[in-house]
Design a protein that fits this description.
Layout lengths: L2 H51 L13 H4 L3 E8 L5 E7 L2 E12 L2 E11 L13 E10 L22 H8 L4 E8 L22 H40 L4
Parallel strand pairs: 4-6
Antiparallel strand pairs: 1-3, 1-5, 2-3, 3-4, 5-6
Amino acid sequence: MTRARRARRSHWIDVTLLLLAGAVFLSLIGLGNWQLRRLDWKLGLIEAVETRAFAAPVAPPDDPISVEDHAYRRVSVTGDLRHDLTRRVKAITELGPGHWLLTPLQTRDGHVWINRGFAPAGTGVADWTAPVGSRTVEGLLRASEPGGTLLESNAPEDGRWVSRDVAALSADAGLLDAAPFFVDADHQGSPEAWPRGGLTILAFRNNHLAYALTWYAMAALFFAAMVYAVRDRSRSGRRAVSDDEGGSSPV
């Protein structure tokens, strides 16, 4: 292989490696920026919980429902629980594995799905409270969870629910007038009664700033390594050219 061909080949290798290094650097910066966006979202969520979840209960908002404006708002609804339409949704809580009990509440304006609380695995209808008659339920407004989870999907035809998908629950129960949200109810009854309400998670970990700084630090270190490698490559190239010129000089 001639010296010129070796030089061209070396040049394209350098360009390819530089482009790949640039892509890695931009990816690290992008991950840091993504964590900052997640930080903004998490701060908004924390603020929403602090300003809505502990306020006096109000009537549910009219459609349309906005997650940004209405999630975790404390609401109050009155009606009759339809226990015959209760659906069990897979759940894992601080009390162990089990199910959320989702029961539609029939109000004057239609149905609202109520998450009455958690019932551990091994319990059944005989172990659950079933209040009858008109009653007022207080709790937190929650957005629907369509589709299922990352690993599992809802299968209404098999009676398997892994997320609180309001639209699917309503379709399965034959409810045409259900609200597009559900309510996480406060606990009702004796402290040891099932289902156990009031288990909504209201404290959220917020490590996004630390993650963002970590990605940016990795980007900075990678950039410094790139600069060092380019400078070292350049010095090596100059030394090679100097040696070639010295080797071809007449004695």
